[in-house]
Design goal:
Elements lengths: L6 H34 L1 H4 L9 H13 L4 H7 L1 H14 L7 H10 L10 H36 L2 H4 L7 H11 L8 H8 L3 E6 L2 E7 L5 H14 L4 H12 L7 H22 L5 H6 L13
Antiparallel strand pairs: 1-2
Helix pairs in contact: 1-7, 1-9, 3-5, 3-6, 3-7, 5-6, 7-9, 9-11, 10-13, 11-13, 12-13
Length: 302
């Protein structure tokens, strides 16, 4: 669908493209770091349940790789207390309050682990140090891009409306709207869902009737942005959580987890279209029961 020329929406589109590029870079850097550590120092990855989401883990690894240049024996000789002190200092430098001592202790214990290809450790850990620096810089640029995107939402006066959908963040909504453009250009919410390729369609050929499934057509970037929004919104949003539970547990036509997530992604797009085109906040009752049961509520179909 051709888009009308608008500077503000155009800016959001380009910022969304930059954010996507940075996300790809960040994922690639994490995969490379993980692969190298699995080869030469796998115990480091076991020090935290989700190491790349732990500021303590990244600070501890930075202390080992930057200050001691990957010399695990040197870091170990400094002692646990000195190591904790250095990690705490690194955490404060990054604007955090205090480290998780359990993770600090587990990283220190991993310094004595001999598993991995020892001969490759020095070179591989040097690469990890470089990649870790690249990843931290990518995250900084990503945060900057996301801040710019949310400022565009503020400029469009849409932040309050889109975040009225429980569980949908301003960044998640901005990522979706960067792909859709102004939702008002779509005559119906279903048209927006079809634009994303999330509207199921039955396969027909002559007298043959195939299964109803997603066609895979539409805008892949929009489909991905809506899919990502599901992960943040599914748990805190009671309407989406109940819908997901029903779809995956009902006896007739039970959906797989992936299929149910696609349904929720389509619902998020419909609800975004509704709140923006009507200018009214999201209404959980209408999202659950529809407008016929609640004629005075906001017209959002579940």
């Amino acid at each position: 669908m051709p888009e009308p020329v608008d500077e503000t929406w155009g800016r959001l589109r380009h910022l969304g493209a930059r954010r996507e590029q940075l996300l790809v870079e960040a994922v690639s850097q994490v995969q490379q770091i993980r692969a190298l550590l699995e080869c030469v120092w796998p115990a480091a990855l076991d020090a935290a349940r989700q190491p790349f989401r732990s500021s303590t883990w990244t600070a501890a690894i930075s202390v080992v790789l930057d200050r001691d240049h990957g010399d695990l024996a040197l870091t170990r000789r400094r002692g646990a207390a000195r190591f904790e002190q250095l990690v705490r200092r690194e955490i404060l430098r990054r604007g955090r309050q205090r480290p998780c001592l359990r993770i600090v202790q587990q990283v220190f214990a991993a310094l004595s682990d001999s598993a991995g290809v020892i001969a490759h450790r020095p070179g591989a850990l040097e690469r990890v140090a470089l990649l870790l620096g690249d990843w931290l810089e990518t995250r900084r640029r990503l945060a900057e891009a996301e801040a710019r995107m949310t400022s565009v939402l503020d400029e469009l006066q849409l932040t309050g409306l889109v975040t009225s959908i429980t569980g949908l963040s301003a960044v998640g909504a901005a990522a979706i709207l960067a792909e859709t453009g102004d939702p008002k250009r779509f005559a119906t919410a279903r048209a927006l869902v079809k634009h994303a390729g999330l509207a199921p369609r039955e396969k027909l050929s002559g007298t043959f009737k195939g299964r109803t499934k997603l066609t895979g057509q539409g805008r892949p970037g929009l489909r991905l942005a809506a899919w990502r929004a599901v992960w943040g919104a599914l748990r805190p949003n009671p309407v989406y959580a109940a819908r997901f539970a029903h779809l995956t547990t009902r006896e007739h036509n039970k959906l797989t987890v992936t299929q149910a997530q696609a349904v929720i992604a389509a619902a998020i797009l419909r609800h975004l279209h509704a709140v923006i085109t009507t200018g009214k906040p999201w209404n959980p009752l209408t999202a659950t029961y529809g407008t016929r049961q609640h004629p005075t509520a906001l017209p959002i179909a579940a």
